[in-house]
Here is the input.
Amino acid sequence: MTAVSHLHDDHRLSREPLDPFFSKAGIKKVEQRVLERVQKLCHRFREMRGTGQVIHLFNAFSSLTAGINTSR
Here is the structure.
């Protein structure tokens, strides 16, 4: 879901459901999991260094957010 609107009040209404995810508390909920995923991705990059293999960055960066559940 993307909150896009030309009118400020409309934008606020469409953005409102997303606000809890970007609050300090919302970010804190997922911070450790995101950090672990970034560390794992960096580890994979280091493993691939010098191998000549292509790393598809779309897939690599998509893996950072896939399956993050904020209800935990």
User: Anything to note?
Assistant: The mean pLDDT is 82. Helices lie at 8-15, 24-48, 57-62. The chain has one domain: 8-62.
